[in-house]
Automatic annotation (TrEMBL):
It comes from Kitasatospora gansuensis. This is 2-polyprenyl-6-methoxyphenol hydroxylase-like FAD-dependent oxidoreductase. Residues 82-264 form the FAD-binding domain. Signal peptide: none annotated. Gene3D superfamilies: FAD/NAD(P)-binding domain (3.50.50.60).
Amino acid sequence: MGEAVRARAVPYRSAQVRTPGGRVLAQLPLERLERKAGRPELLISRPYLIDALLARLDALGEVTVRLGENVTDPAALADGYDLVVGADGINSAVREAWFGSGSGPRKVGSVAWIGIADLDSAVHGETWGRGRFFGLTPIEAGRTNWYAAVPEGTDAAGLRALFEGWHDPIPRILERGDPATWLRYEMRHLFPALPTFVHAGQAGKVALVGDAAHAMTPNLGQGACTALLDAEALTRAVTHHGRLALPAALRAYDRERRRTAQRTALASRTLHRIVSTERTWLRDTAARLLPG
Ligand SMILES: Cc1cc2nc3c(=O)[nH]c(=O)nc-3n(C[C@H](O)[C@H](O)[C@H](O)COP(=O)(O)OP(=O)(O)OC[C@H]3O[C@@H](n4cnc5c(N)ncnc54)[C@H](O)[C@@H]3O)c2cc1C
């Protein structure tokens, strides 16, 4: 997978946090992360990642992928399979069937608008305003990914108004962009955190991964990354313990991933609170003190 992902990914080497007027408040510690890891942070668009995953499955052979099928009775899957993996997102039917409705999606009061601009932006990172922020990340030559987090109820016209007068290229992107191509997401997270990601009993053996297990606000850009780490850890645990010891494999997976993933989700939610605050002076002063 690594080679296929690297072929479509772009390195993320320089990004700043700015005020709406364009003043730099902080550097994102990308250089430090690169030095520590010995390789740069990489960004990849979702369609490229999905293509790479499907190509890998194809290369493995003997894997049946059935697209466009809605599972309406997840509990019935346990009769036909050794292990059910709930990778069905924040509204997970698998979670509901085996873990109940004690934890569920909860709104955080903001919506995210996202889009792709046909330009190369000279600046990347986030720009923090009062109760709203705008982000810019590279995708490939000539295209820039953008996202904006704004109060619920903001429509496309309202979005343009909220970022009028902000530094370049933000107003330019919104004025020239076609709202029909923009996507709007309600920002939600899973609350409260689940007491376990796994079930092994009479009703079957089940593991939750990704948003089904720990949907988080997008502030840290870690939701999909965390889902991939879950999938890798679950695969490793099942391979290590074997098909005949699935309960032990599930316990090992839960031990390895649950606390870490839930800490990431909490950090992302906390960052959302900080970034969306109306008290910008305190936030911006703290941001200026961060090490680069
Ligand atoms: C605005 C925004 C920006 C984000 N930015 C980033 C980022 O920069 N980096 C990052 O790592 N993450 C980011 N994320 C988070 C990321 O998108 C999610 O964490 C990730 O998609 C979770 O993957 P998943 O496979 O668990 O769930 P999903 O991507 O939600 O996939 C679940 C799949 O299950 C299918 N499904 C659901 N129910 C059923 C059913 N009953 N039967 C059959 N199929 C079903 C769905 O159709 C879907 O294909 C962002 C999220 C948002 C909203």
